[in-house]
UniProtKB/TrEMBL annotation, chains A, B:
Similarity comment text for this entry: Belongs to the class-I pyridoxal-phosphate-dependent aminotransferase family. LL-diaminopimelate aminotransferase subfamily.
Cited function: Involved in the synthesis of meso-diaminopimelate (m-DAP or DL-DAP), required for both lysine and peptidoglycan biosynthesis. Catalyzes the direct conversion of tetrahydrodipicolinate to LL-diaminopimelate.
EC number: 2.6.1.83
Name of the gene: dapL
Organism per entry: Treponema ruminis
SUPFAM superfamilies from the UniProt entry: PLP-dependent transferases
Cofactor(s) recorded in Swiss-Prot or TrEMBL: pyridoxal 5'-phosphate
Pathway info: Amino-acid biosynthesis; L-lysine biosynthesis via DAP pathway; LL-2,6-diaminopimelate from (S)-tetrahydrodipicolinate (aminotransferase route): step 1/1
Quaternary structure and interacting proteins, as annotated: Homodimer.
Annotated binding of substrate, by residue: Y15, G42, K106, Y129, N184, N285, R385
Name used for this protein in its record: LL-diaminopimelate aminotransferase
Chain positions recorded as pyridoxal 5'-phosphate binding sites: Y72, A105, K106, Y129, N184, Y215, S243, F244, S245, R254, N285
Key words, A-Z: Aminotransferase, Pyridoxal phosphate, Transferase
Reactions accelerated catalytically: (2S,6S)-2,6-diaminopimelate + 2-oxoglutarate = (S)-2,3,4,5-tetrahydrodipicolinate + L-glutamate + H2O + H(+)
Amino acid sequence: MIKRNTGFANLTAGYLFPEVARRRREYAASHPEAKIISLGIGNTTEPVSKHIASAMSDYALGLATPEGYSGYGDEQGNSALRQKIAEVFYSGKVDASEVFISDGAKCDIARIQTLFGNDVKVAVQDPAYPVYVDGSVVVGAAGENIGSGYKGITYLPCTEENSFFPDLSKIEPDTLIYFCSPNNPTGVTATKEQLKKLVDYANAKGCIIIYDSAYSEFIRDSNLPKSIFEIEGAKTCAIEINSFSKPAGFTGVRLGWSVVPNELKFADGSSVNKDWNRVMTTLFNGASNIAQAGGLAALDEQGLKDMKAQVDYYLANGKKIKETLDGANFKAMGVEAYFTGNGPYVWAKFPGKKSWDVFDAILDKCHIVTTPGSGFGPAGESFIRFSSFGHQADVEEACGRLSSFSM
Amino acid sequence: MIKRNTGFANLTAGYLFPEVARRRREYAASHPEAKIISLGIGNTTEPVSKHIASAMSDYALGLATPEGYSGYGDEQGNSALRQKIAEVFYSGKVDASEVFISDGAKCDIARIQTLFGNDVKVAVQDPAYPVYVDGSVVVGAAGENIGSGYKGITYLPCTEENSFFPDLSKIEPDTLIYFCSPNNPTGVTATKEQLKKLVDYANAKGCIIIYDSAYSEFIRDSNLPKSIFEIEGAKTCAIEINSFSKPAGFTGVRLGWSVVPNELKFADGSSVNKDWNRVMTTLFNGASNIAQAGGLAALDEQGLKDMKAQVDYYLANGKKIKETLDGANFKAMGVEAYFTGNGPYVWAKFPGKKSWDVFDAILDKCHIVTTPGSGFGPAGESFIRFSSFGHQADVEEACGRLSSFSM
């Protein structure tokens, strides 16, 4: 019989969010009266703008006409959309040939490991979005789980002590570095100076950075970099992954992109962009053409205005949650809440407590689903991530309940 | 610096279809007067039915309303769609929990290799759809290219001599067998008796079959099996991959599904379905919800009628091409054309000629793009694949030109 991929045997427990969903389901089943509100998974709740939805609707209807029909598109994406992304998000610093359209950031993060195979060294921020680690485990690059994490992965603690920016000197040469900014889960956005340090380190040590900027549209401080390609030297050491999911409400529509610079090389001097092109043409078949029509609409004047309004809405929720967590009842528990106003998450430390215990207590006493920080890595223990994705009325109701929480 | 995945270094030349596209582009550039018709890539050309397109259009428009909006869906797919596929295509032989919705068959074929890692033995029909081999090469399961093919892959010749059904005894125990029916490129559909042999062999030898039935809706002979799960014993040895691309015209919309039976096990007794669930939830994030709305419409009474009409249209094209290739000019060259009426491809042998030479001659003399059989594997040499996907008028014009072809 055929053997199981040892990567799966090495994967620990459930993927974080299904486990959160499971506990929610169980709680709901035994407490049918509870009106549960989710500040857990980063799932958008507000309708897509009329302008963007109409573009997709019109495109779909057009598929029923000879003029509007299209079959397979370029696997790398609609060239007008690649061009528009290069212009709007990278002001010409990136060429359209370096932009590849995907069905979302998570899928590209999974595919990207294909480029490097199963014997690459991996470093992740700790805490981090679980897919970086799980994707590495599945391809066999992470090795065994040794309790505190995987043997083959370097965890870079991002804590209050280092203002959530890791000690780079722990990263070995020739390492694939996953770096997320604005960060999920801490919400912290790296400064230009910090990213310059990271880029210089990667170039000096032969590392490649997978820069996840899926939350870049939440950045409101104009001094903060929205792309790693604002940093000199990034094109020889970084791949950027981004998505329409959060700013356009496309979590279910599925559309993202990655930028793989022409200057980026493997050790043998061959082009990473060329291999990525091969991944996308051989192992992928393009994002839905309807979603791509939506992406184009999202990048015109009206679409950009709509995306900004949608992000503003969620940022206001985040501010409200942060104010609640600064309340006297939380102060009494020693809770410290971090919210930058440049990302969608509020990251709160409950000193001396286990994340899952706090998760369960908040679910039980407030009927609110959160995300336990320990699910994002060892350094996330004692933290809870509060997501600002939710209807304003629900967030206000949740904040009302939280204002009398204690454990 | 980081090393290149050796799988990419092992990949030969370009992926078949980009190479075909390149030759077409070059020819068009040097012959701007040529009105080129494509009977090459299997790309749908006919509009999506109004019924199905309207369902997607309505869904997209609904995303702009609070009632119609949805964010992340289940990564495994909309449960109503999973249920409907189980009923419509498998008449209850398959449970909804065994059906996983994807963004298309090609993407699932690529992802499926993740289940088995890089040391699994692989067997493919020869000729075969190139992604089975290329996907295996990229994960490192295929080994080096030794000229006639990859060292780690068992090629199973499917030729006139064996009526295009392979000699199974060449397959070693514990092998992953890619099997496509109706076949791309030969067009041949396996009978129930043949599939029973395949299933029995796989069960006896501990093999797993990846059954690609993306063209099953082309089957018009009611004695032929549309699914491997019509065969007793298949649930302990097979995974089926299918797609809405061809019957619904969804090549650009992106929607497919895979069936991974609960009974299917790895050598250690663990469940393949469970690991696949993990692949889909961790490395994928669901097909576009708009496409899934289209899939649901395609499976109601009107949608099924529309899909049948669309397939009938292409089958009529295939019949016309087959008649043309039976003409006196082709007979004079010794050409033998195979067309079953149960698949979209006409597979024609040009004895004593190289496939790429025939490809070039047909492009040059008739301004018609075809697909060279050798691109599908060593046993495809001397063959040309003619695709029936095209506007009827174009196919008729192409057949007119072909009727005076010689080389």
